[in-house]
Amino acid sequence: MIVPEYWAEARRHGRHAGHRVTVRRFGWSDEGQAQAQAHAEARVQEAFDAVLAGESRPLRERLTNYGFNGVPIREEIVERVGDAVITRNSYGALCLNTPDVLFADVDFEPRPSGCALSLVAGAAVWGAAFVVGIAFVDPLPAALAAFVALFLANAVSLAVRRRAFARGGGPEGGALARIEAFAQAHPDWHLRVYRTPAGLRVLVLHRTFSPCEPDVALLFQALQADRLYSSLCRLQHCFRARVSPKPWRIGIVEHIRPRSAAWSREHARLPERLAWIDAYARRSQGFAACRYLRTLGDAAIDPKAGRVMDLHDALARAHAPLPLA
């Protein structure tokens, strides 16, 4: 995992295939701004030469909250605790990043809605109703009757699916059932389960993990973890958990300035940014990012994973009787 202290950007301009092109690349360093700029210059020169040679390269690097393939997480570093790093993301919330303590977020499955019949089933219902109707009436009323039958069949099917969804415990029950099934199939694992505003979070405690190892992919697949998060864990070689509320969930409608993750010390010290952070911190005191639910498995806790658990629970206020945000 790399979460650099210093960032810079470099550009090269030129012409290729009769068109003017501008290539941009980021550079980074933990040593200083000059080293970050030198890294950016080296990276942009390599990419610029490749573009002029006819290679297919992106002209600029698209950045997300998790970074980009080949580019580390680009966020303001708030604190380092051992090799864990607390950063402030693009909308102002705090995130705990760790190279080898496994977090997995599981989003809730939405309540069944819309069309509950498959295309084949819908066509079969409509066709059967039309054939029956055409035997007794003209084609137009038969077609209308067939559409009414299709609507009623879909309504019944949707009601049946919703009842089954509710009997299974609703969105939380379905997600928790997947976690429990994994725990039963892997009794040597130690899983700690939390409720988040829109799903569940799993923290694995019996050992540490490389984000690219097969057991991580096995857990993500079994739990149906968020696909973007799963892929970016592999690309960025880290795991990540949001540990403070999303601003709009606690009544803060103004965006943090600048409206991107701070990647320079100048950004981090902007007065309007500091004022926003102060208001956000005060408002956040009344909310939790997640709530501890239960533990599955009794394997011994790895000491490093245990330290990250304590840090996570304290930052996220996981044991406080507070509303989730």
Assign the structural class, choosing from mainly alpha, mainly beta, alpha/beta, alpha+beta, or little secondary structure: alpha+beta
> Averaged pLDDT, please?
84
Q: How would a crystallographer describe the biggest sheet?
A: 4 strands, antiparallel
H and E string: EEHEEEEHHHEEHHEHHEH
- Give the DSSP E fraction (strand runs of 2 or more residues): 15-25%
Count of individual beta strands: 10
Distance from N terminus to C terminus (CA atoms, Å) equals 27 Å
Give the strand order, joined by hyphens, for the main sheet: 3-4-5-9
Low-confidence stretches: none
Helix content: 40-55%
Overall number of domains: 3
Which properties best describe this structure?
single chain, 325 residues, alpha+beta, 3 domains, four-stranded antiparallel β-sheet, 9 helices, 20% strand
